[in-house]
Write a structure and sequence with these properties.
This protein is α+β, with helices and mostly antiparallel strands. The chain has helices spanning 12-18, 51-68, 99-116; strands spanning 2-5, 25-32, 36-37, 40-49, 73-79, 81-84, 88-96, 119-125, 130-133. Helix content is 30%, strand content 38%. Strand 8 (119-125) and strand 9 form a beta hairpin. The radius of gyration is 15 Å and the shape is elongated.
């Protein structure tokens, strides 16, 4: 399951998508908008994406991880548009037979998403300025 939406994210469909009898571990990662970056007060974030490419790359990442570990099930959702402080911008759900693999796979999924998926983030600050930010894992190295 891959979801890209302007609406607030609900973890329930992702959890349901990965749940199965053989899963001894189900993890849900929630990435939320924090209120500061490098000492500046952040009012919120705005996300933009080229939807066909972002959706395809997210699917490719999940397929890769599930091919590497066939016992995994993964689902991801990313919010687009404005995301106020404290709200969820990304969800990764993962199930595996055991917790160790679930933790490793969940981390790999979010790291690959940040490095490869063309989703762009603008930080809006309390002083009414804004700045586009690349992910720390992206080739540009900006956080």
């Amino acid at each position: 399951m891959v979801i890209l939406t302007d609406e607030p994210l609900d973890p329930s469909p992702l959890r349901a998508a990965v749940a199965r009898p053989g899963a001894g571990a189900i993890l849900l990662f929630e990435g939320t908008t924090r209120d500061s970056f490098e000492g500046r007060r952040v009012r919120g974030l705005e996300y933009e994406a080229y939807l066909p490419l972002a959706r395809a790359e997210l699917r490719r990442i999940l397929d890769e991880l599930e091919a590497e570990h066939p016992e995994l099930r993964l689902a991801v959702a990313h919010r687009l548009g404005p995301v106020p402080v404290g709200e969820v911008s990304v969800l990764v759900a993962c199930s595996a037979p055991h917790r160790d693999l679930a933790y490793v796979a969940s981390r790999a999924a979010i790291d690959r998403l940040k490095a490869r998926v063309p989703i762009f983030k603008k930080e809006r600050y309390d002083d009414d300025t804004a700045a586009w930010r690349a992910n720390a894992e992206s080739p540009s190295g900006d956080s």
